[in-house]
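Lab channel / #folding
Pinned by the channel admin:
"Please post every new chain as: sequence first, then the structure tokens as a reply. Keep commentary short and put observations after the output so the thread stays searchable."

First post following the new format, from NK:
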Amino acid sequence: MGQVVYIDSMETITVKVSDAQDGQRLDKVLAAGAGGLSRARLQALIAAGHVQAAGSPVTDSSRKVRAGEIFDITVPPAEEAVPVAQDIPLDIAYEDSDLIVINKPADLVVHPAAGNHDGTLVNALLAHCGDALSGIGGVKRPGIVHRLDKETSGLMVVAKNDSAHHGLSAQLATRALTRVYQAIVWGVPSPAQGRIETKIGRHKTNRKKMAVLDGGGKEAVTDYRILETFGLWGALVECRLKTGRTHQIRVHMAHIGHPLAGDPLYGKASPAKFTKQMKIPPAAAAALGSFPRQALHAAQLEFIHPISENRISLQAELPPDMKTLLQTLRRARG
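Reply from TO:
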């Protein structure tokens, strides 16, 4: 591999042509000497004038090289991905000139990130809102006030301008923005209603998970109450967030021994545990164990409109997959 140096955050790679490479294409030689850069990426850098020989740009990828020639490749810093507007259907629960409330389906990522550069809620909002976005922090983009996990469905409020974003964020911080979820869990929590107060932080060994911590972490408070039970093996539970930590409901319900059905991170051991200890009907065990996502839905959202100061109160019924799961559990319960 060529020598690598860094100048003002720019990466420069120097490649010297060996005797064996004499007469080969420039892009092929550079790909062999600049480990980590693909041939296609190098072709783009060559065309943009980022490859030099003896101080002069070389812009022909097919140029034949000579033994002993030295090429300097300047690699500019990676640019942040800029979300593009995409025409993706949205289920709109409420909208005005300042904000929009979406009933997000499961399997929709909120914001572009590694592995999900497009096809997200933000891409959809850019297309839907268009010129109605007056800017968040000087950038024409929707203001995400709170997020839902990819596989969590339900209500989300998004600001269209700075004033609305600041007002909604303040309500979120002071707990004036009310968020109520419904979850289908393994087993039946006891007592039937209560408050879970813990510290939540990143899991010590699995960085994809959050965990209840004895030391460190941030305050996390969830109020819950049972809405319906299915024998001793399942329950429909209402959860009210008093704080908004990552994966909070999923972590808290698992912490008290009743993880969400279908939860891939916090409920993996649940099927074996509950089917061994309880007389769970086979149909119920199969339905709970095969549910394809965490059974969690943001069912209610209430806040004071940051501009008009009117109270906005919205509800979203359970999505079809959770309704079907409940129907199966009710039939199994008898």
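NK: The longest strand covers residues 218-230.
TO: also worth noting, The CA atoms of residues 91 and 103 lie 5 Å apart.
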